[in-house]
Design goal:
The protein has 460 residues and is α+β, with helices and mostly antiparallel strands. The chain folds into four domains: 145 residues, 2-Layer Sandwich (Beta Polymerase, domain 2); 75 residues, Hydrophobic Seed Protein (Orthogonal Bundle), CATH 1.10.110; 158 residues, Hypothetical protein af1432 (Orthogonal Bundle), CATH 1.10.3210; 43 residues, no CATH class. 47% of the residues lie in helices and 10% in strands. A seven-stranded mixed sheet has the order 3-4-5-2-1-8-9. The chain has a two-stranded antiparallel ribbon with strand order 6-7. The chain has a two-stranded parallel ribbon with strand order 10-11. The longest helix is centred in the middle third of the chain and has 19 residues. The structure holds adenosine-5'-triphosphate (ATP) and magnesium ion (MG).
Length: 460
Amino acid sequence: MSVQSLLPPAARTLAEAIAEAGGRALLVGGCVRDLVLGIAPKDLDFEVYGLAPARLREVLARFGAVQEVGKRFGVFKLRMDGMDVDVALPRREKKTAPGHKGFAAEPDPFLSPERASSRRDFTINAMMLDPLSGELLDFHGGQRDLQNHVLRHVSPAFVEDPLRPLRGMQFAARFRLSVHPETARLARTMLAEYETLPSARIWEEWRKWAHAPYPDMGLEALKAMGWLLPYPELAALVGCPQEPQWHPEGDVWTHTKIACRRMHEVCAREGIGGAAREALMFAILAHDFGKPATTTRDEKGRIRSPGHAQKSAELAKSFLARIGAPKRLVSLVIPLVAEHLAHMHGKPTPRAVRRLAVRLAPATIALWARLVEADASARPPKPPADPAAPWLALARKLEAEAQKPRPIVQGRMLLALGVAPGPRMGEIIRRAYEAQLDGAFADEEEARKWLVAQGLVPKV
Ligand code: ATP
Ligand code: MG
């Protein structure tokens, strides 16, 4: 599809009004990259050349409410055709202090587009598009880099913002890019500034990683840049050996990368997005975090890692806290990681399925089954496998798929049966729930009979 046909009409309308006033509006940043890739942009960013800020504001006001953010920066926000439109003046940026925020920006309507574009992070994000002529201004070879799947910095000023390597990770994962060696070299010099990044910004990049179709490329980009260093859990996977019989693909790092890719494919197939997808992506990322600390050789010389799932869950918790993941997400990821081998420890009986559902809560067997599938399918040349399928099938029958079984015996019922509130009531509820999980009863009627038979409540 051509760039022009994907261009929202609002882009032309706005550019025409600015041209009439004597300026030039260029689309910039991610929306140009998306257009070049044939993706309809989700929002529009303009840079306007040759107009003073006050004049620009007047022109924009014709299109509705204009919000001005950071007077010094000269950025105007408006909505057109249901899209967020940002209009900025070109600006020079000077580094004034360490860290992601240590910049002073100086708006200058008469800067050249080439100069203005050099403050951007990556060549693929530094292209500009004139919506009136259709001309692509590509001073840094962004189109070539997109075609060749190269993630490349725009200028040596790349080193001034430590967020950029993390941005690079998610761009690599979204657009299947490999880091250019010189970009990787620059990134390595920026590691000391990682500590200055606010965790909310770190999380934003990791969240985008979790929704990207090539998460393995993002991980490889991080490694190429030397940016596994802030993540010792990930760095330790590199070179951690596995038993070739079970893992012919190689070390834990290789397995993890393939598994992340499989996880994306499974999510795409099942239509899993949002928080569920994030939970699965971080669970698969972390599922073997515990292997480096638990890997040994048994008496037959085979490589084993007993107890690694539990260790992985511990490490996942601290890793997720450090990258700023929301608590709700952590509460889903931890039980998924801890239980990722549950299908190996017994047969899928109703009892085992119900108990697994309880251990997984607030995660579910439905999510767990997808995680297990991605893990089992990440051992090439072994074919894909789905060892959780019988567990999921039985859970569906037992309706334990999407939630842990609801306790049938509750306080209300016991009160009606003449049990006084107090510790004994709590004890009965606990015992009844255990029995329910073991299949002793399936509804209130049966539960009442069971309570009577056990002598826990008086005969009614
Ligand atoms: P997304 O699709 O994730 O929104 P994007 O490329 O639009 O990707 P934004 O964070 O929205 O990314 O930023 C818009 C543009 O601003 C980028 O394309 C890039 O040119 C520039 N930019 C944003 N953050 C930085 C940064 N930290 N350093 C340099 N340039 C940046
Ligand atoms: Mg954007």
